[in-house]
Amino acid sequence: MPLVINGIILVIFWLLAVYSTSVFESFTLTVWDPTKFGLTEPTNYYYFYQQLKSLIYIIISLLLLRKFPIKALKNHKLAWIIMIWALILQCLVFTKWWESYNWARWWLNIPHLPSIQPSEFFKLAYVIFLASWLTRKKENMSSPQFFLLFIILSAILYAVFLFIPDFWTVLIIWATALIMVRYSWLSLKKTAIILAIWLFAWVFAWLTLGFVNKRFSYIQNRFSYFFTSDKEKIEAEREKTWWQTTQALIAIWWWWFFGNGYGNGLQKYSNLPESYCDFIFAAFSEEIWFFGNVLLIALYVWMFLYVLKHLQKVNDPQLKLIWVGIISLIIVQTVVNMWVNVQLIPTTWITLPFISAWWSSLMVNCIELLLLYKILQTENKILPVK
Fold first, then answer.
1. Contacts of 86 (CB under 8 A, 6+ apart)
2. pTM of model > 0.70
3. What pLDDT is stored for residue 202 in this prediction?
4. Is 174:202 a contact under the CB 8 Å cutoff?
């Protein structure tokens, strides 16, 4: 139950953040032709209303999954089915239904359905599949065959994201996989070798693909800007990247302790792009700063500590790996998003779990929280928290 309460508070944060930060984006989208969106006049809350409609899909999904027997995830065939389904859904971005942004294929616009971001579903499916696969390979994890097979399998699954291109999703699932592999009895030395191989492959990919195809060049530009100190040599695309990160820092630090007041943020008005999604932490920080952000970060920290505290009480090895994978996925993605917003790493298109606007992300986050809760409930080993 504490996990459920924590999730509800995060969803309240999501409602407040999206309602406030999507004002300008909603107006600029609907001002040119309101009838295209079924409106008689422009509105400041188009994105918020769309998210409320999507919330219906999320609630229905959670109600259906509430009765799902968590022990079914121990079925290795089911894990393969989930992984294959997620991979097929992800590959649909190369069909006529995909929608691109800066040459990157991100969303699926399937008729009669809300836009879907398949990478969010892939991440959860990958955790479930990897937990099943590692459990079955436990006895052979010290063998060179396991080591080689794991590298090859990972390369095959990650390859689709390199051609989207979506290097940061690779980073998220890569970091999550490393945590799961290390936790599932692989030696520290071999884990370090896997880390070195993946890091080399990842850097090699973003260094070379930009020369092969223009669609990948913007990734190089972002890294080039991040590591250069000569601002006068930054090209147009780099200036765009500089603008995003600079405006995010202004939003976060300008009003410092008390913030500018809820709804009174200024950076969301054309200065900060994707203020309701990728940069929602920065945009909302301008309004709620110290007290609001302390509460938000505390919710993530509390979730992590709660899961860590009760980890040993989950007895089943496979369910324990799913447990570790889900919380790792949430925390790694949270850290990456916040680091981008405070300019510690180059700009990415990674959403902030439970807070960013896109419904696919929120749905998967809620499902992840439900799975954590059901694993505890199934194990039936945890006493109520006083």
1. 118, 121, 122, 124, 125, 126
2. yes
3. 66
4. yes
Q: Residue 368 and residue 257: Cα distance in Å, rounded?
A: 33
Residue 182: which residues within 8 A CB-CB, separation 6 or more? 188, 191
Phi first, then psi: give them for residue 196, nearest 5 degrees: -65, -40
| Sign of the four-CA dihedral 307, 312, 314, 319 | positive
Quick check: bond before 384 cis, omega within 30? no
Burial of 179: CB neighbours in 10 Å, binned 0-12, 13-18, 19+: middle
Asked if residue 334 lies in contact with residue 351, where contact means CB atoms within 8 angstroms, the answer is no
* Encoded amino acid at 10, one letter: L
Q: Tally the C-alpha atoms within 13 A of residue 191's C-alpha that lie toward its C-beta.
A: 15
Per-residue model confidence (pLDDT) at position 55 = 86
Instruction: Give the integer Cα–Cα distance in Å for 37 and 14.
Output: 23
Query: Looking at residues 117-139, what average pLDDT do you find?
Result: 87
From the centroid of its chain, how far is CA 318? 23
Give the Cα separation of 172 and 333 in Å (integer).
6
The mean predicted confidence, pLDDT, of the chain is 78
Burial of 377 (0-12, 13-18, 19+ CB in 10 A): exposed
- How many Cβ atoms from other residues are within 10 Å of residue 92's Cβ? 15
The token pair at 209 is 């693909």
Nearest to 146 by CA among 198, 184, 92: 184
Q: Which two tokens stand for residue 239?
A: 């200036």
- Find out whether 327 and 375 touch, Cβ atoms under 8 Å: no
Q: Higher model confidence: residue 203 or residue 4?
A: 4
Residue 238, C-beta contacts closer than 8 angstroms, at least 6 positions apart: 221, 222, 224, 225
Residues 173, 220: contact at Cβ < 8 Å?
no
Q: Give the span between the Cα atoms of 283 and 254, in whole angstroms.
A: 11
The half-sphere exposure of 293 on its side-chain side, counting CA atoms within 13 A, is 22
Instruction: Determine contact, residues 340/223, Cβ cutoff 8 Å.
Output: no
* 339 touches 345 (CB < 8 A): yes
